[in-house]
Design goal:
- By secondary structure, this protein is of the alpha+beta class.
- The protein folds into two domains: 86 residues; 109 residues, Immunoglobulin-like.
- Helices cover 43% and strands 38% of the residues.
- It has four helices and seven strands; from the N terminus they run αααββββαβββ.
- Strands 1, 2, 3, 4, 5, 6 and 7 form a seven-stranded antiparallel β-sheet that branches.
- The longest helix is centred in the N-terminal third of the chain and has 48 residues.
- The chain starts with a helix and ends with a strand.
Length: 204
């Protein structure tokens, strides 16, 4: 009801301004000076043709005011979101990479984890492209250090390769204090010939 009252009040002000001001008032004055006074029909036509523009002008003002309010709310929300993101503490995670290198007649694939501070290695696993856990990688679970090199054995990789998967990921879980983190390193698996023996290289 309050909205309707405010709209009608604004409509009346616009209508009054159109009738009493500008071209309409000058036209009526000139008509009365140089001719006979306008009939009631002309007054009715005048009221109608000023009422319609008054309705449009009132609607336009309310529409613009509503858009400005929506824009202000959106800007306040964006500002609050930016402030929240700036105050959000960064998620800790170690530097992680997959490395492959020749060791004599063998090809070794290793997960390398490093950080400036001590952290705990919890677990390492080999996952299929769909995320199924194919193998638990033997690692120094529970050990605390600033860096780990986890050997991914050829036997573990064959659990992926024998299922005709040529890609997958290494999932690792670590913890530093009360901050746990679980990460995934996607890789592509390809054959590599070393000393007349076929090995599987993980490229991630």
């Amino acid at each position: 009801m309050a909205e309707l009252t405010a709209f009608l009040r604004g409509l009346f002000k616009k209508w009054q301004a159109l009738i009493l001001g500008g071209v309409v008032a000058v036209g009526l004055t000139m008509w009365q000076w140089f001719g006979s006074p306008p009939s009631r029909i002309w007054y009715g036509v005048l009221l109608l043709f000023t009422f319609l523009p008054a309705m449009y002008l009132t609607w336009r003002d309310e529409y613009r005011r509503a858009n400005e309010a929506v824009s202000e709310v959106a800007e306040l929300r964006n500002a609050a979101r930016r402030a929240s993101e700036q105050n959000k503490p960064a998620i800790w995670r170690p530097a992680a990479a997959l490395q492959s290198h020749e060791d004599g007649a063998e090809l070794k694939n290793e997960l390398v984890l490093r950080d400036a501070k001590l952290f705990e290695l919890v677990s390492v696993a080999l996952l299929s492209p769909e995320g199924a856990r194919l193998a638990e990688i033997q690692a120094d679970a529970g050990s605390i250090s600033t860096g780990f090199r986890v050997h991914i054995t050829h036997a573990d990789i064959l659990k992926l390769w024998n299922r005709h998967y040529h890609s997958g990921s290494i999932q690792y879980s670590v913890r530093r204090g009360d901050a746990p983190y679980t990460g995934n390193i996607p890789f592509v698996a390809e054959e590599a010939m070393i000393k007349n023996t076929i090995w599987i290289r993980l490229i991630g």
